[in-house]
UniProtKB/TrEMBL annotation:
It is a multi-pass membrane protein. Residues 132-393 form the ComEC/Rec2-related protein domain. The lineage of its organism: Bacteria, Candidatus Spechtiibacteriota. This is ComEC/Rec2-related protein domain-containing protein. It is found in: Cell membrane. It holds the Pfam family Competence.
């Protein structure tokens, strides 16, 4: 162990060990006897070598953090083997009594929904409702399957991957409109806050906003390495609050891994894709889409039983339009609340962008080689995949 290791790096490893402990406990039933043996072993190392060997003390704290992760998962008061319990208690919080702000947010969402429905018809209306308000229940089964096959389901999910890509597109849009870079940055951050509030500020949106915000602020400061440390810290804190997120919450998994992938490799892709045009943020979109797909592939396979082989191509075509759809759609929806006629007029370009996106999704999902069907994907293959991916990142020096 490096004696000169910076305290921030030691703290990073402690957080990672806690997350690893939660992961092991979620995959295997660890006996309480072993948990207490780990605890005694860790405490013993720390107490024996406290003033003698700093390396041994660090190892002791790493073991202690790992044990704490196992203990936290086991002591969480919930039937951990039932996904129904988690769905009943976490993704959509049930409030005994909504407060004034929650009522107003609900009324505002209802008004936005009416404005959209008066100007758009299916499938554009259901697609826009899912993109803007996260109302995936309005999507038809056929459209959901098309989104899965084309690798674009994330545009309807409240995940860090979606927020980061859209926020960077909004920064590019702000620059195209003549904003200074710091103004464009705060324009994008404001959009994230508004988006989170618009969908009712559920925990999934708040977590995605936090992870996306961490990366955006790190990009602005030019310190992407700090983003990774803050991301791990944020994940550890969230798992301390609810360790079931790691096993059951797909949005949490996608947000964390996509943000991690973007923070580690997007700069490398930007430097090596200079042959691609900057127009409409194409290079930026590719640089974020590729690592997002690579880092989230095992999660998508294990949850949906398939991997989209046209995902990168399809996302490059529709992500720029998605940011325009959200921006113009939000303005049109607000205008529609004030005047239905004005709203209908402003929704014309939104309908055009939605029709284009739907057509691209429809065509790409119908390609015979669109998806790779995978019946079983054991967790150890996922671990092997991520280890191989990490070795590739190190080999090509992608990490910046």
């Amino acid at each position: 162990m490096n004696l000169t290791m910076h305290p921030s790096r030691i703290f990073l490893y402690i957080c990672l060990c806690f997350i690893a402990g939660v992961f092991i406990s979620s995959a295997y039933l660890v006996s309480q006897i072993f948990v207490w043996l780990f605890f005694v072993f860790s405490a013993g190392i720390i107490s024996i070598f406290w003033r003698r060997n700093k390396s041994a003390v660090i190892v002791g704290f790493l073991f202690l953090s790992f044990t704490a992760g196992i203990f936290r998962y086991q002591m969480f008061d919930a039937p951990k083997d039932t996904l129904d319990y988690y769905k009943r208690t976490n993704p959509k919080e049930e409030y005994a009594e909504a407060n004034f702000l929650e009522n107003k947010i609900g009324d505002f969402k209802t008004s936005l929904r009416k404005s959209m429905d008066s100007a758009l018809s299916p499938p554009e209306s259901s697609l826009f409702g899912a993109i803007m308000l996260g109302e995936t229940e309005r999507l038809s089964r056929d459209l959901k399957e098309k989104l899965n096959r084309s690798g674009t389901r994330h545009i309807t999910a409240i995940s860090g991957m979606n927020i980061i890509i859209l926020a960077n597109m909004l920064i590019g849009l702000g620059l195209m409109l003549g904003m200074w870079r710091h103004h464009a940055f705060y324009f994008a951050v404001s959009f994230i806050v508004l988006f989170t509030i618009m969908v009712g500020a559920p925990p999934s949106a708040v977590r995605a906003g936090i992870m996306g915000g961490i990366l955006l602020f790190a990009q602005k400061a030019g310190r992407l390495s700090q983003a990774r440390r803050l991301l791990v810290l944020a994940a550890a804190v969230m798992l301390m609050s609810n360790p079931l997120l790691l096993k059951f919450d797909v949005g949490f998994q996608l947000s964390f891994l996509a943000t991690l992938g973007i923070s580690m490799t997007s700069s490398w892709f930007m430097d090596n894709l200079k042959f691609t045009p900057q127009l409409f943020g194409i290079r930026n979109t590719i640089s974020m889409t590729v690592p997002s797909v690579l880092f989230t592939a095992p999660i998508l396979i294990s949850n949906f039983g398939q991997l989209s082989l046209v995902s990168i191509f399809t996302n490059i075509l529709i992500i720029p339009m998605t940011s325009l759809t959200l921006g113009l759609g939000f303005i049109a929806s607000i205008a529609g609340i004030l005047s239905e006629t004005v709203g209908r007029i402003l929704f014309w370009p939104v309908w055009l962008f939605l029709s284009y996106s739907y057509k691209v999704i429809d065509i790409s999902s119908d390609m015979p080689f669109a998806v790779w069907e995978i019946e079983a994907f054991p967790w150890y293959l996922g671990v092997l995949y991520f280890v191989s991916l990490w070795l590739l990142v190190k080999h090509f020096k992608m990490e910046r």
